[in-house]
Amino acid sequence: MTSIGTGYDLSNSIFSPDGRNFQVEYAAKAVENAGTSIGIKCEDGIVFATEKLVSSKLLVSGANKRIQTIDRHIGVVSSGLVPDGRHIVNRGRQESKSYKGIFKQPISIPQIASRLGNYVQVYTTANSVRPFGISTIVGGHDSQGYHLYMIEPSGVYWGYQGIAVGKGRQSAKSELEKLKLPGIKVKDAIKEAAKIIYTAHEDFKDKDFELEMSWISEEFTNGRHEFVPEDLLAEAKKYAEEDEDEDDEDDEDDEDEEMAE
Amino acid sequence: MEHDPFKWGRPDNATYGDYDYRISNAKNTEFPSMHTQQPIVTGTSVIAIKYKNGIVMAADNLGSYGSLARFSNIERLIPVGKDTVVGISGDISDLQYIERALDELEVENDYDGASHPFKANHIHEYLNKLLYQRRSKLNPLWNAVVVAGINSDNEPFLAHNDLLGVQFSSPTLATGFGAHLAIPLLRKVADKEEDVAHVTKEQAREAILQSMKVLFYRDARSSNRFSLVTIDKDTGISFEKDLKVENMSWKYAETIKGYGNLQKF
């Protein structure tokens, strides 16, 4: 990259002569190398899934959750620097609480996405701070139905039918496109999400990981953001693992064929 | 004019003399500050009784503005968490404040996935702290609150809390007028804690319905529309709304003459 040594990458508040903010681009790099997270908007709900890389065998399995709750009806998952993810959720909780204090009703998803987007953007404009090293997927249910957004380190936020961030985003995105969103049911989306995360993990094959999943659905969780129950999670993992085995077998077959040739 | 950025636009001291800060600091009330002196829109009694496996609680739907029956659709039984209901009498705006405080408490408790759901005794403790803190600021929440639910030992829990920060527990509880009119009736069914084991759900419910009737007869700030909730440690909460006081007899009214002073004759 042309930024090295030019001095234009040392500060947030200085553009390079060709109009780029390098600090923000470096922040995006932090996300590109992190565990994969996905969000899916379904006909009847929202599903979040993340590949939580386990850095030590001494960590308690199932602890240190990555998917978090902003309010009853809003879930968040982010890829990138974990403490940054915690920070933005804290801010989201404050925003949600303050909105409820003023308007006496829960904040809508477009509103919270906008507030968080603006918050992230501010951290790209001042010399004294660094941008967020995370891409954040925010989803939820409100009076207008289900919504899914993703906020980038630059503060850009778009609404999506399905979105993937982190190292395995390329393969995950092409899998998501095959699902023909949002024409999918949450229960099916849970399985597909597990499969996508397992596939995306190919990029980090040497590291252990835990699959973490949550959902929001009027029918199954009463419009609340909750972790996927144990039985459904186990079912989804089974589905994902079966599929993985098939792929492996296919690979082996291919190899055999190659050898025969 | 002052050009100092901190005093910008003020009359120049050199020209007009020292600025009189008493003008900008003046209050436009007689008092330095004002706290709640009395409730405005009020709800009357909340009554509750324990039975073998749970609790029955009721409160009417009236919001009174002084003696005017101002609002007829106020819900004063507020469910919190999975197995607790808070019944609130007294000021309705303070009721709404407490409702929001409990909602916020619930949202914050669920941040980590509802892994530690709170129980009736926790909510009672929280409310007591809230009410006592406010009375210690000489700005009380003008309510009497009954917390009914299942506690952390999975036993029925019933406790009272009020604007003074007083808390106590009893197998029968009532606030306001109910403390005079309903408690004697409820104690006929369950006088002491050890009696509760012999009280059935049906008996408890019957006693509550009877007490709501008596309260409607004699409490001039009550209405005949009420909500009733049954919290059972096995079957959970069942809410009944829009109930009406039934089988009333106003016959005794025929014998009333004047405002009471003529009745001895």
TrEMBL record, chain A:
Residues 241-261 have a biased composition (Acidic residues). Residues 8-30 form the Proteasome alpha-type subunits domain. This is Proteasome core particle subunit alpha 7. Belongs to the peptidase T1A family. One of its GO terms (cellular component) is proteasome core complex, alpha-subunit complex. CDD domains: proteasome_alpha_type_3. It comes from the Eukaryota. Keywords: Proteasome. Signal peptide: none annotated. The keyword Metal-binding does not apply.
Automatic annotation (TrEMBL), chain B:
GO terms for biological process: proteasomal ubiquitin-independent protein catabolic process; proteasome-mediated ubiquitin-dependent protein catabolic process. One of its GO terms (cellular component) is proteasome core complex, beta-subunit complex. PANTHER family: METALLOPROTEASE TLDD, PROTEASOME SUBUNIT BETA. It is found in: Cytoplasm; Nucleus. It comes from Saccharomycopsis crataegensis. Pfam families: Proteasome (PF00227). PROSITE patterns: PROTEASOME_BETA_1. Keywords: Cytoplasm, Nucleus, Proteasome. Non-catalytic component of the proteasome. The keyword GTP-binding does not apply. Its main location: cytoplasm. This is Proteasome subunit beta. Belongs to the peptidase T1B family. Transmembrane segments: none annotated.
